[in-house]
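> @MW can you paste both from yesterday?
MW: sure, first one:
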Amino acid sequence: MKVFKNKNNIGLGFLLFTSIVCAIGCKKSFLEVDPQGEKKSEEFWKDETDATSAVNAMYANLRSWNNWAFAAIAVESVGSDEAEKGSTAGDATFLNSYDDFSVTSTEGQLYGFWNGQYQNINLANQVLDNINGIAMDANLKNKYIAEAKFVRAFSYFRLVRAFGDVPLRLSVPKDAASFNIPRTPKEEVYAQIEKDLTEASTVLPTVNASADIGRITKGAALGILAKVCMYQGKWSQVLSLTNTVMTMGYTLFPNFETSFRIPNENNSESVFEIQCQKVTSINGASSSQYSQVQGVRGVAWGGWGFNVPTQTLANAFENGDPRRDATLLFQGEVTPQGDQVPIKAENPPMYNQKSYTPSTYWQSGFTEGADQNIRVLRYSDILLMNAEAANELNDMAKARTSLNLVRARARQGNNSILPDVTTSDKAALRLAIWQERRVELAMEFDRYFDVIRQGRGTEVFGSKGWKANKNEVWPIPSDEIELSAGMLKQNRGYN
């Protein structure tokens, strides 16, 4: 086996072609890879089967530990006012340093998150570097290239939100000198993200065939591009992009709570959803721990009880809003699926119900919640981005229409609760849209960065220790700086 060694390990710990076989175990046929199909790298990239294996590995890594477990909880969730560490007081106390903003560059979850994204990028770059040399179906080749560009862009978006300037790698390093590169200004990173997503959107299908459900679509590329533009305040582009996605056949799933349950995965509201499922014949393939780390503590079918909602979030819902009980899973509650949440002193008072997997899907010896897909982008988010863009561009009528579609679904036919927003005042409508994002998208790893891009970090997080001109980004992992021999420079305010 030829192994590519990374001189400074900048997010390239996954630079092994053995990663190709990690795609075993997803429930869709396009994500299944024969575990006997491992090849030496010098024998790889010969035919369409190799290209498919490489793309499948890229998809499989999207559900990995560093993408959606402790690292993501630390960097994308517990810094906000909607989530806190959870579990027992003495368990994984390092997560508290993200909650009170005392984290230093040596904390390991920073490194995990950084590497998780660069692992995705590396797998995408392997596809982009090598697939053109393969004689294969041209349409399939172009589709694989588009999917790789999406994955690379999505991972860079998560990085740039979290760290600001980051090294921009658009190919797999070929020699020692190309391993060690400096941070690229975030404006250039955003430009590349936009380029990748725009190019991908011209190739990807609007609707997948049944055998390809869960693959990246045109709507996913345009929707993530809209979010990327929103973070840069490019409101005309956000409005145009979301208007386009709104013509592509997506609809709000009628019942908010059941939209997150396994039978309703990849429903009409799903724009981008990471596919996960246990494979009973291959224990090690049931690899998603997204639900496990957040699951109900103290029951066999639950999990570890981390990343739990705060009372602040519980108080943020309007009286009677059904989304409160569909988002928060309380001690002592019996779920709509019939599971009893225990009342124990050591347990958090509530859990993230959106990541909850009913006990009927639990199997002894397998990761709890391995069947639960990860909802990354939902149609309600598209509507709320559309509303915010329209409001910023002074089209309050359109803003209210998109906003009120989300509220109408939430009230689910009960017109006595969650009345339509009627204000024409731009500032008031902006606050109403921000509030709707808070409750509609709660516990979906967006709140922390939403508040920062809205310019409200001190207002919302200041009491937790958040400081302007520092905590807009997290520290660059110290291991990366050390391995780069000082090529990478630390973010302002961090050692």
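MW: second:
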Amino acid sequence: MSVRLAPIVPTARAAMLLALAAPVALVIGATRPDAWLIAPLTGLAVFVLVLLDALWAGRLEDFHVSVPGDVEVGAEATLSARAQLRGGRTSGMQVALECDPRLAPGGRMTFSLAPEEGGWRANNPFSPSRRGTGQVKQAWLRWIGPLGLGARQLVGDLDREVRVWPNIGAVRSPALQAFLKDAQFGLIARRMRGEGTQFESLAEYQPGMDRRRIDWKSSARHVHLYAKEYETERNNQIVFAFDCGQAMCEPIRGMPRLDRAVSAALATAYVALKGGDRVALFGFAARPEVSTPFVAASGDFHRLQRAAAGLEYRAEEPNFTLALATLAGRLQRRSLIVVFSDFTDPTSAELMIESIGRLVSRHVVLFVTMADDELEGLSTAQPDDLETLSEAVSADLLLRQRALVTRRLLQIGVDVVEAPFDRIGTRLLDAYLEVKRSGAIG
């Protein structure tokens, strides 16, 4: 880190002391004209105290800021700073960092260092709000003298890059790992017997089995009830299509809807890869932007994560007609297409419904959207005044319009998943497993 030594600066305490002393000195000078020197001498005394206090603070020997190179959007990360002084007595040390706004609100982090054996140190947590590459550009270090009147300040250029990746915390969660080990899509790649459409074998009928699975001919031949077991199809094609337009870039609880959709999709993609299916990503706004080949091995999951990191935030309306027509032209066989999008009114959703409707005849389509908790909160608010009542009526109208669009999607044969942002991943995984068990893809 290149360092530029800044001059001695007064603290807020010194400014307050000068502000309190100045009126007293002026009153004395006004009542005693022969004592007019008191005013400038008071200011000079404060200045000398500031200078001496800053010198007593000691001399900086070492200053280092450690910045993580890779973090996940929405996840808590930590950067650390440490400093070491030579001589003097310091009453406090503060660090300020200039950074990309995606790393901290307003592009600024400020925190204090705590004394430890051999120096000063602090760990500052932060949570990135958007994907991409953010920079930590400059660092300011200020250490204050024992009187709290003067401080020394140092400015350094950092120019460190922080790569913000999609959040795959759900993939690492103990609940999902336990599911993968114990459930039908386990790490040992057991077959999904008892469900699906491909006949696998006969097994002795057990109470609780579906009676429609009884093989009456085999049962009559063996004079014992036998049921058919099926194997769920593998090697299905799953495409996660992301609307990267303006509506999906709006934040929900501090993180864009697009990033929450990406996290849910990657968790489901990981399960799909473990289950033997093939997964691809597709991103679009005014035009198609990201399209990956199908990934078949769970060991290549990082390719999907890297591709998802390339989904840009676009402040423009998505072109569903062009995007979904392009996607349909690239698919050579029946696939499950999971579309992540949002809409504000039926008019803006008209082209979306029409474009998705063209896919239904050949593919299985799953439409995923996040419930708007802000609208729901406004709709259920107590109408204490006219403004609140007006907001509640408008919010209720928008919610009814959203329900109308959802019903139209269901009518044309699209499965719709709508849930709060914190449950969208679980609901999507359940919907995927249900489609897979039904054998609708193959």
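> thanks! The two ends are 57 Å apart (CA to CA).
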